[in-house]
UniProtKB/TrEMBL annotation:
GO terms for biological process: phosphorelay signal transduction system; regulation of DNA-templated transcription. InterPro entries: CheY-like_superfamily, Sig_transdc_resp-reg_C-effctor, Sig_transdc_resp-reg_receiver, Tscrpt_reg_LuxR_C, WalR-like, WH-like_DNA-bd_sf. The modification 4-aspartylphosphate is found at D53. Residues 4-119 form the Response regulatory domain. This is DNA-binding response regulator, NarL/FixJ family, contains REC and HTH domains. Keywords: DNA-binding, Phosphoprotein. GO terms for molecular function: DNA binding. It comes from Micromonospora peucetia.
Length: 214
């Protein structure tokens, strides 16, 4: 499936490179380069992924309001491609609701993987940012004792949770664990119930508390 992408251009040389990569991508369609988030949300059909250099609480609120006003079935997943290596902006963006975050040294292949992952509704954040933003909590003595609150996670649920945090789609997780996609869907549904998290970004934050398998 081809992912549609919109870019909010900050006028930087880095974003020219982003546009060039997208124009040459076989599985991504660039629908346009826009001067603001509002210009994207005003489209009759919004893209699957929105790439920007920053994403804050105000922007997240703008997306929510647009969805309520126009009854969007889905709003774009936001992927931040930052020219700064600082961790502070990453924390702000992900806390506000961005699904992906790439630093200034991301490769073209990494960008395309992130676009595909965010377009599927999953979270894509490089390991460095995940570790810095969500420091691991104390790890249970054994995997069998792992819990979220008072609700224990099975070993297989933890395997799925780990792969969700790594940015894999349900189909990719199914292939990795030799399961059907429907079974993975069921595991993710259970994880959401047990953790109280409604999306993949929330599950990623939960996963940072475990010494999960790679």
């Amino acid at each position: 499936m081809t992912v549609t992408v919109g870019v909010v251009d900050d006028g930087s040389l880095a974003f020219r490179g982003v546009v060039e990569v997208l124009n040459g991508a076989p599985d991504a369609t660039l629908v346009g380069v826009f001067p603001s988030l509002g210009a994207v949300l005003a489209l009759e059909v919004v893209p699957d992924v929105l790439i920007t250099d920053r994403y804050c609480a105000d922007a997240a609120q703008q997306v929510r309001q647009a969805r309520q006003a126009r009854q969007f079935v889905a709003c774009p997943g936001v992927l931040v491609v930052s020219g700064s290596a600082d961790l502070g902006p990453a924390q702000v963006a992900l806390s506000a609701g961005a699904l992906g975050y790439l630093g200034p040294y991301a490769s073209a292949d990494t960008l395309l993987r992130a676009v595909d992952t965010v377009g599927s509704g999953d979270c894509y954040v490089t390991g460095r940012y995940r570790e810095a933003i969500h420091p691991p909590r104390p790890v249970p003595a054994t995997r069998d004792d792992a819990t979220v609150g008072a609700r224990p996670l099975s070993e297989r649920e933890r395997d799925v949770l780990t792969l969700v945090a790594q940015g894999l789609t349900h189909k990719q997780i199914a292939s990795r664990l030799s399961l059907s996609k429907a079974t993975v869907d069921t595991y993710v549904h259970r994880l959401r119930q047990k953790t109280g998290m409604s999306n993949k970004a929330g599950l990623t934050r939960v996963a940072m508390g475990f010494d999960a398998p790679g």
